[in-house]
Amino acid sequence: MKMLSLPEKNKRLKRLFHPESVAFIGASNKRGKWGSIILANLINGGFTGAIYPINPSEAQIQGLGAYKRIADVPDIPDLVVIVVPPQAVPAVIGECVAKGIQVGVVITAGFAEVGTEGERLQRKMAKQAHAGGMLLVGPNCNGIMSPPEKLHVAMPPIYFPPGPMAVVAQSGNVATSIARRAMKRGFGISRFVSSGNEADLHCEDYYTYLSEDLDTRVILSYIEGFRDGRRFFAAAKEVTRKKPIIMLKAGATRIGAKAAKSHTAAMAGSDLAFEGVCSQAGVIRAGNMDDLTNIAAGFVGQPLPAGRRVGIVTAGGGWGVLAADACAEAGLEVPALSKETIQELDEFLPAWWSRNNPVDLVAGLKPDHLEKSLECLLRCLTIDGILLLGIMPALPLDPLPPSAGPEAVEERCQVLLETIGEVFDKFMGLAHHYQKPVIIASELPFSVENLESRMALMLGQRGYVCYPSPEDAAIVMASLAVYAEYIRS
Amino acid sequence: MKMLSLPEKNKRLKRLFHPESVAFIGASNKRGKWGSIILANLINGGFTGAIYPINPSEAQIQGLGAYKRIADVPDIPDLVVIVVPPQAVPAVIGECVAKGIQVGVVITAGFAEVGTEGERLQRKMAKQAHAGGMLLVGPNCNGIMSPPEKLHVAMPPIYFPPGPMAVVAQSGNVATSIARRAMKRGFGISRFVSSGNEADLHCEDYYTYLSEDLDTRVILSYIEGFRDGRRFFAAAKEVTRKKPIIMLKAGATRIGAKAAKSHTAAMAGSDLAFEGVCSQAGVIRAGNMDDLTNIAAGFVGQPLPAGRRVGIVTAGGGWGVLAADACAEAGLEVPALSKETIQELDEFLPAWWSRNNPVDLVAGLKPDHLEKSLECLLRCLTIDGILLLGIMPALPLDPLPPSAGPEAVEERCQVLLETIGEVFDKFMGLAHHYQKPVIIASELPFSVENLESRMALMLGQRGYVCYPSPEDAAIVMASLAVYAEYIRS
Q: Which pLDDT does position B403 carry in this prediction?
């Protein structure tokens, strides 16, 4: 690994995510085996390059002509996928190096995570790859994906749409959970890496590559521990100057750290030390998988705030109180409104409005109050960003009679979704005009199965999110503010 | 209020939730007015009793014969709903008392939450009601619902199905948000109260009534502050012996407390003091609206654990690590496994399994490993409850080919949902057999729009939840353990 220069390494990583051909060692016809499931996923994912299944005893695998050994393939594949028993892996790597293959994904488990014998085997495998200048993803991982290339070399049969988020995780199932959360919010994936035991490539290698990757706008990462803390820190510090890294770190507690050790042989280290590394390297920390995705979406769609002073506009008082609490807990300020702003709001809000931040529209039903209040706060010089809670006042509110048939319901849903799209376009246009983030959290005026997920997809495709709770919105705002401070520092 | 005995008060509260007739003062034909929207909701909700709209200038309101004044109604309505401007409310209450009405819901805002003048008006209104022995919900609230009675006197046009959860909240929009979250998980609502400024009835009055209400199994509450701390404490302490109260408290921070004051005139008080009240009264605290609903669902479907020792079975290592962290943070223990349990697991798990708690099935694909591991841990004497993470190994996993048409996809979804139902029945049967909670968190093996919400509804109707993340599962387990300790103490 150390023998390769950075440009050389990145060239190979480019091959990993943009291969023209893939060899698959351990390809199988047997239903239920990973060598069958992952190959099926690669084929079904629509990869358009050549696929070479390798199997010593079958002539055809899943309809493709198979080869007995990698040496027999009439081409040098750009990428090799390895799904053979652990004891066989070092020899297979040797064959791949001999063939001239430059990068491989080792799915196989049973290495450093299972103890001393596995560690020995893992070192042997890595040594063999290093000697031949071959890069390795894994072992003990669930694969990689590159949705813009329709490359799907991974366990879960889920085909993420292409989009701005890269996922790098030291756990395949967490990587999948994160990408699913992004997909449900209508955001696609640029690259997906389950880095496993990181015998060769570490998460920081992927970060560095992704910092120059044009398809990636934000990096979402889950880690259980560093392999090399100093190297991680140096790489992350460079990358965050170019793109945000949002990080979920496991093993923060003694019990969690023990679980991490037996999962991917990771040494979790002290959580306090990790917190220090993050804040000095500009890495944004998330508390869980939902926050991670929510924050990343904020970075895709929002301008960065100039400070931590938040204005809250709410269509319902309770959400305003919860948001105020959440802002305080996230280290944001909720300053009093200036006299001028109060005067401006007095001109159109009802006499009994709160005259406070949060600006409570008090179950107001005038559609334009929301937009006018938003603009008042955006113009206010002592406010850096807005939490807008409840877009109902701007939506058609007439209740659906219970007698409404499915067609009438669908028609109403269409109108509602269209209006929501227009409202978001308008409000996010204001956000970008004033260069202040406008984080919107809301529910819908009526409850129809599917409507929320349809709204999420529609908005996500435009780069927006309608967050489900006031706390989510506050957490996103705080993350934008922390990153903006780091970038300015 | 103090004049009424408890049985007398509860008799009137029963009338509130089970009225045979409802008068509606401020009923309107004008679209967009609350007097029109709420009346439409009451009619559309399917209420089968008599509805008497009161309006001084219209003969018909929304198709119903209207009365000029409450005095003209040819009956003594069980319940009155009041949606007239604040200045008019005290006089209207006087008329209701004269008519002999015993309970009313005041929707109107513009009382104590807007300052001294409003406070005066609120006191005047309450005095008038007290003098006549009439109970009041509100003012400044979004209404009440009693879904088993098809009684829907509230702003949001959402008809919650009847079910085991009662919602009592000092915010109408938070009450609605909580009930929506319950509904999305397939759980219905027994009673819904937006208690508003609590000029007369306080949240503790509702708790006391609900503790004897046969339709209610668990009370979900949002509060911004007590009106009378000692009275709240005494009532809550009695109620929690009979039913759990799960509580979200706002105004925990200085900023939030300020927002609460201008929302419902509530004095939030110190969060530390509130924490003390909760732990001494057996009230379970939730961190946000999602946790609140998740925890309440746990109380509906799970047996209580005998202690805090958690066994974790996970189909994916990363979720196991996140769960271990979350358990530690929630005050749970994740003890090492006994020799006997390890031996039992050794008999069927692959040689490289973690031999630790969490029990990591390491991407195992054998369908029965999950159930067998679960039973091993349930039998273990040093474990009080189980987190089961990932039910995929027990489900049909074959990927759907991308060419599959909508019928094939639907057929696959049906099979999957049926299998999930069977798996939950089996696992929850084990939970009740061993009298240890089994909290399940999982994603689905493939991603089809709607599948998750369909699964949630199907499971919720059986009293089960498939939690979306390992942290959720840990929080639910911790809440069950804390309540169980309180009940045993």
A: 76
Which residue of B109, B183, B327 is in closest CB contact with A362? B109
**A residues 125..144 contacting B (CB < 8 A):** 142
Cβ(B52)–Cβ(B79) below 8 Å: no
β pairing state of B218-223 and B189-194: unpaired
Cβ of B319 within 8 Å of Cβ of A445? The answer is no
Interface of A with B in 255-284 (CB under 8 A): 255-256, 258-260, 262-264
Specify the pLDDT at position A364: 59
Torsion, Cα B462 B468 B470 B475, to 10 degrees, reads: -60
Q: Which residue blocks in B265-366 are alpha helix, DSSP H?
A: 271-281, 289-301, 317-329, 339-346
What's the start-to-end Cα distance of chain A, in Å?
33
Query: Domains, chain A, ranges and CATH?
Result: 6-298 (3.40.50.720), 303-488 (3.40.50.261)
Backbone angles phi, psi at A460, to 5 degrees: -60, -35
Asked if pLDDT for residue A330 goes beyond 70, the answer is yes
CA distance A315 to B30: 21
Top residue of B261, B274, B322 to mutate, by most chain A CBs within 10 Å, is B322
How far apart (Å, rounded) are the C-alpha atoms in residues B135 and B144? 14
Instruction: Please provide the average confidence, as pLDDT, over all residues in chain A.
Output: 93
CA distance B194 to B153: 11
The residues pairing with B146 across neighbouring beta strands, listed in sequence order, are B151
Going by pLDDT thresholds of 50, 70 and 90, the confidence category of residue B399 is: low
Q: What is the pLDDT of residue B1?
A: 43
pLDDT digits (tens, 9 = 90+) for A364-395: 567 788 999 999 999 999 999 999 999 988 88
Lowest mean per-residue pLDDT among A202-216, A269-283, B8-22: A269-283
pLDDT score, position A1:
43
